[in-house]
Structure formats: C-alpha cells, structure tokens
Amino acid sequence: MEQTYCSDCKGFTAIVSDHSAGDAICSECGLVLEAYSIDETSEWRTFANESADNDPHRVGEKSNPLLTNSGLTTKISMPKGGVNRSSIGRFRKIDTPDPDKGLIEAFKAIGVMSERLGLVSTIKDLANEIYKKMEDVKGSKGRNKDALMAACLYTACKRLEKPRTMKEIHSVANGATRKEIGRAKLDISKHLEDSRDEGCTKPVEFVKRFCSNLGMSNKASKAAQEAVDKTADCDIRRNPITVAASIIYMIAQLSGERRHIPDVSDATGVAQGTIRSSYKDIYPHAAKLVPAWFANEEDLKKKLWSP
C-alpha cells in the first residue's frame, strides 16, 4: 500500500484512495491528505448485471490519428431488456453510421498480415498510412481490397528498407492474386508522390535475411552481402531475388556449412531451376564477386560447381 507523510500523525502512514471523491485519506487518523485528484488510468469497470447487456465493459480504444476525431467516439449498445431499453432506443435512432468502419477493418486486416510476416509495428503503421492516403485520393476504387492492403505492406517494407518478396506478401494476401497485387502497387506509385521514386529493390536487401533463414554464419552472410553488392558492376540481367539466391548458393559452397540448391530454394522462394540457370550466369564472375578475404582463386576452382 502506498505511504505518504501525515501532518497529524507526524510520520509516514499508509493511505487509502477514495476514487469516487478523488481523495487520499490517512489510514491511521482519517485526515484527507489530498482532495480532487484525477485518476488518469483506464477505467476497466464491468457492469455485468446492467439490463442483461451483452457488452458489460466500459472502456474505449486507443486514439488513432488516421481516423476521424482520432477514433475517439461514444457508442450506445442496445440492451436486451430492462427499463432503459426504450429510452436508449430513441438515441439509437439518431445514431449515424461510423465513417471509419471500412478503415478500421482494413487496419485490422493489415495488422493480421503484418503479424503473419513477423513485421515490426513501424511497417504496419506506415502501411496503414499508405492505405488511408489511397482511400483519400480514391486511388483504390474498384480494386480488390486485400490486394491493395498487401501492396501497401509491400511498399511500406520497401520504403523502410525491410523488403519482402512478392511470394511472401502473396502468402498473406487472403486469396488476392499476384497480378492484382501488382496492379495495386502501380496504383500506389501513380497516386502517391512519395512512392514514385523508390527505385528497384537491390539484391543485398534480401541477402542478410535469407542467410539467417539458412542458419549461415555471420562471416558467410557478410561475404554474400559483399558479393551481391559487386554484381552491380557486372552485366547480370536477373531478378534481384534470383541474384541473391544464386550468390548465397555460391558462398555456401565455399564455406564449411554447405547448403544445397533445394535448401536455398526453400529459404528464398526461388525455384531450383531458376537458381541453377542464374548461377550459370554468375559463375564466370566468381573471382570478381567473392571477397578475397573469404576465398582465394584456388578455393574457387576446388569448391565451386562448374556448370
């Protein structure tokens, strides 16, 4: 129990709080030590016996700046019976529809998608913001909502430099096709100025996560990142994710922790045949790409698969 100094008792005593009056009272002598204090905590009260109401709780949601009035509203639920039913009914007749209902549902869906992908809250919040902007400019009219939400997540991940592959985004899109998500991405780029100049995703942005998925060491992961960075100077016309997967396979052969093509395919989502084909394009550049501190020319000749 909290203690404070009581002038009558001439010492520290336990205090009792009267929340209804806002008083702090000395438990020894009854002196009111503080009056009209305000309790700023949430009021989680339950009215279980009030007119057989289905929802006995009396507490609201946290504020959300993306919603009308920050999402702070008062709603009156209709009890099943009791003396207050008729009077409450009169107020319900003038109750207006919630203008944010669609946004709230979308934000919840984006939250579920984010959770399934293991994304941090900052990415989820940015995806919510992008979705709200698209709604404001009517940029999503006629589009599949699930596809738009998935595209918002894809864009948010990319903008915060935590990219996810289209395959990963598609896996949580509630049935929306990749084509629909792709169209929604184009809509976002078209209508939102801050999304137009994001540029192409770089292979290195995926490498660290893919190496982690494969359980590779920090040394191998660093070598893969350096090798992928150097591909920009080579004429390798491949999808960034495919390049990342092929480089990881190359580095895995050179390290003591060998990973086979099926393992790399499972970790990256790139088809085994695509990895083999891309590896053939990258192999001639191996001496230039692989860091010298990780493997020398003799290692490249002995350990790398020669297509």
TrEMBL record:
One of its GO terms (biological process) is transcription preinitiation complex assembly. It comes from the Eukaryota. One of its GO terms (cellular component) is nucleus. Residues 2-34 form the TFIIB-type domain. One of its GO terms (molecular function) is TBP-class protein binding. Keywords: Metal-binding, Transcription, Transcription regulation, Zinc, Zinc-finger. SMART domains: CYCLIN. It holds the Pfam family TFIIB. InterPro entries: Cyclin-like_dom (IPR013763), Cyclin-like_sf (IPR036915), TFIIB (IPR000812), TFIIB_cyclin (IPR013150), Znf_TFIIB (IPR013137). Belongs to the TFIIB family. This is TFIIB-type domain-containing protein. It comes from Papaver atlanticum.
